[in-house]
Design a protein that fits this description.
This protein is α+β, with helices and mostly antiparallel strands. It has helices at residues 5-14, 37-50, 101-113; strands at residues 18-23, 26-30, 67-71, 75-79, 82-86, 123-129, 135-138, 150-156, 159-163, 173-177, 182-185, 194-196, 211-217. Strands 1-2-11-8-13-6-3 form a 7-stranded antiparallel beta sheet. A 4-stranded antiparallel beta sheet has the order 7-12-9-10, with no helix packed on it. It starts with a helix and ends with a strand. Bound molecules: succinic acid and fe (ii) ion.
């Protein structure tokens, strides 16, 4: 990991934020989401009221340790029939809540800071981790247009993100993520395997014993 002189100069404008390149097409934007913090927390609260977090089941029948909800035109769901994007929340039978404008602004700004202009997310998966919850290595490949990147925002207690290669067998890098960090991957890195190690017990002043991850995608 390195920070170039140019990034340091950018950092003067962006105050507390800086970038680390992971590979061609993937970057970590440290603290990038902090200036959106209040809007993000308010947005998550209103989405949660309309579409509560729930533990979905994998097609194999396992209950996921991460609780999930969605906002935007498409929501990612999994059940015994498989993984898919659905415009309707299966719990309520209603469309997923709208994606708050501040979410879209953050996702687009982060994508373009990472070199992906014209990102138009229509799906925001909201993952809620408590200590012990984890997400095993997987690829994001249920989206129709793989030209568009993934923008992944971390809030709350820390986690160790695994960023792997193009095959499951490639040994992943371990990347500690903190409240406010944003990871963007696309282009040649779009199908990289990734996951999250089991979270350690911790307490965050705003989110308590929780990590919330927002994953923005163009799904439809
Ligand atoms: C995901 O891959 O959907 C979640 C990644 C994360 O929680 O950081
Ligand atoms: Fe993912």
């Amino acid at each position: 990991m390195w920070v170039s002189d140019l990034d340091l100069l950018d950092g003067i404008d962006e105050q507390r934020s800086w970038r680390e390149d992971l590979c061609d097409g993937a970057v970590v934007l440290r603290a990038y989401a902090l200036e959106y913090e209040a809007d993000l927390l308010a947005g998550i609260e209103s989405v949660r009221q309309a579409a509560p977090f729930r533990h979905m089941h994998t097609p194999g029948g396992f209950r996921m340790s991460v609780a999930m909800t969605n906002c935007g035109a498409c929501g990612w769901v999994t059940d015994r029939t498989g993984y898919r994007y659905d415009a309707i929340d299966p719990l309520s039978g209603q469309p997923w809540p709208q994606m708050p404008a501040s979410f879209v602004r953050l996702a687009q700004a982060a994508a373009s800071a990472a070199g992906f202009t014209d990102f138009l997310p229509d799906a925001c998966l909201i993952n809620c981790y408590e200590p012990g919850a984890r997400m095993s290595l997987h690829q994001d490949r249920d989206e129709q247009d793989l030209q568009q990147p993934i923008v992944s925002v971390s809030l709350g207690i820390p986690a160790v993100f695994q960023f792997g290669g193009d095959t499951r067998a490639d040994k992943p890098q371990r990347l500690p993520l903190q409240h406010g960090d944003v990871v963007v991957w696309g282009g040649p890195a779009r199908l990289r395997y990734h996951g999250v190690l089991a979270l350690r017990e911790a307490m965050h002043p705003l989110l308590g014993r929780r990590r919330i991850n927002l994953t923005f995608r163009k799904a439809g």
